[in-house]
Amino acid sequence: MCGILLLCFLLHVEVMSLDIQGRHAWRQTQTMWNIKNFVEQDINILNPRVSHYNFGHTNIYRYEFPIMQWLFAGVLKITGKNIFIIKLLNFAVGILTLVGVFRFLKLFFKNRNVALIGCWAFSFSPSFYYFIVSPIPDNFAMMCSIWGLVYFLIARSKETQRTYLCAGILLSLGTLAKLPFILYYAFILGYFVWIDNRYNFSTIKNYLCLTSPIIFPLIWYSMVINTWGGNPIVKGILRESSDLTIAAEYLIHHLISTLPELIINYGALLFFVIGIIYFFRKDLYKLSRAKVLYFWLGALLAYVVFEANVIGKSHDYYLFPFFLPVFLIVAFGYQQVVISKFRWVAFLSLAILPVTAYLRINDRWDIDRSSVYKDLEINTSDPDLTYYINNHINFNLYLIDWCLDIIN
Predict the structure, then answer these.
(1) What 3-state class would DSSP assign to 50?
(2) pLDDT tens, residue by residue, 262-277
(3) What dihedral do alpha carbons 272, 275, 276, 277 form, nearest 10°?
(4) What is the rounded distance in angstroms from the CA atom of residue 173 to the CA atom of residue 217?
(5) CA 2 to CA 6: how far, in whole Å?
(6) Confidence band (pLDDT; 50, 70, 90) for 393?
(7) How far apart are CA 46 and CA 399, in angstroms?
(8) Is residue 39 a contact partner of residue 73, using CB atoms and an 8 Å limit?
């Protein structure tokens, strides 16, 4: 496990000092503005601020609960603003995610080697490989949610209310940090319906400890969603302007491109397919735990269909909730091959994953991949631009160089 983490660090240390640039720089810069304004203006976690004044006479914009941005700002209050520190903190979140993946797979399969293989494959998911040093709250949400499921599986063996509550708090934090991770509660509900279905007083009490912290994200999002205005994420494909034909095109794209190329990694794709084949060949689809997975994946698929037009083809980080169940299948596929006479194929595949991830992702950090750099030239000597900046009138500008202060 330590070897996986060390290799991840060595492969990313070169890009940790780069500014916010490359693919999805726009979204990362929104996060950086939250952090910058927590540091410089208002540390109140309930007042996340962005870079513009499109909301009247304030730049407060409450979207996801900014727990990650606020924590990172607390560190910067001590260290001073430094992009390397931000990326190092984000990398630490990614490391905690990988450790959580290992613990989850170990608890699920009862096999340490399968958990190590699954963790190795997860670490070289091209999308995760890129975003592990990219400041977006989806990283923090995935980390908390995975650990929430880890503590849930631990709690089922220990039967302690404290562990159930810990699992519930982590799942709640994941949902607060990014709403789609509320779908991890589908895994919990599946266990309650098909496995822990004794429904005695002890079971009910444990699950109440587990689910009660969900009240906090429910309160937050019930307060802020009505301030999102015309944000298409609220109505999804039910918007009048939604084109179902285009939505179907996006879904096909995710199936034939995003899933094998960015989420799984072509080097591990064969083992994802093998995992599915052996799942049915060994009649595992009849087990109660299989019903839990059906329900969980069904909830995730419903989310992707509903938000298909918003996710489009490019927003692969919207698919973070899928990563854990996908790599559960990948790990199972590797397990079937490792115990066969073709184990050398599995080991060869595992060896090439870092190479295929690097080849697919390395140019994503190039400044030429930053659409904002290419499409928006900022000329602070332009009197019209200066007027809009100084008067904060409907000027939606996210600066890529988050440390650059052009307003003054």
Answers:
(1) coil
(2) 999 999 999 999 999 9
(3) 120
(4) 8
(5) 6
(6) very low
(7) 23
(8) yes
